[in-house]
Amino acid sequence: MGAFAGGVLIAGSRHNAVAPMTDGDGSVIASHPRVEDWIGRPIRDPAFGAAMRTQSARTLTTSALDGEPRIFGFLQVPGTGARIAIGLGEAEALGALERERRIA
């Protein structure tokens, strides 16, 4: 669970961030924040779920977990079929870029 703990540290430092961890079959085995409705169930968005089952790393934008648009990045935990994802609120993630663009 070391990779998951690292993901929680990153997600916990961001407002509106989530960090689900899936097993090799794509079912959520842990999450931050802990949402009981997610545990033991596959990711709801078929494209996101398929990507997490079949790819070792990727970024994508989805509202798969709770309807909130987020930019996710995920990677496979070495030596396992598990994946850890970090999702940042799209508005928060892009807001900083937009502020920088306006200043430039």
Question: What descriptors fit this protein?
Answer:
single chain, 104 residues, alpha+beta, 5 strands
Task: Give a short summary of the structure.
Helix content is 33%, strand content 28%. The protein is α+β, with helices and mostly antiparallel strands and 104 residues long.
Could you explain how this protein is built, in words?
By secondary structure, the chain is of the alpha+beta class. The chain is built from 3 helices and 5 strands; from the N terminus they run αββαβββα. It has helices at 2-12, 46-54, 90-103, and strands spanning 19-22, 28-32, 57-62, 70-76, 83-89. It has a 5-stranded antiparallel beta sheet with strand order 2-1-5-4-3, sandwiched between helices.
Indicate the CATH topology: Beta-Lactamase
Strand content: 25-35%
Highest-level CATH class: Alpha Beta
State the CATH superfamily name.
PAS domain
Number of domains: 1
Care to count the β-strands? 5
Tally of helical runs: 3
Q: What would CATH call the architecture?
A: 2-Layer Sandwich
Shape: globular
What is the makeup of the main sheet? 5 strands, antiparallel
Q: Summarize the amount of helix as a percent range.
A: 25-40%
Class of secondary structure makeup: alpha+beta
Spatial ordering of strands, largest sheet? 2-1-5-4-3
What Rg is obtained from the alpha carbons, in whole angstroms? 14 Å
Poorly predicted residue ranges: 4-9
SSE sequence, one letter per element: HEEHEEEH
Q: What do the pLDDT scores average to? A: 83
Distance between the termini: 42 Å
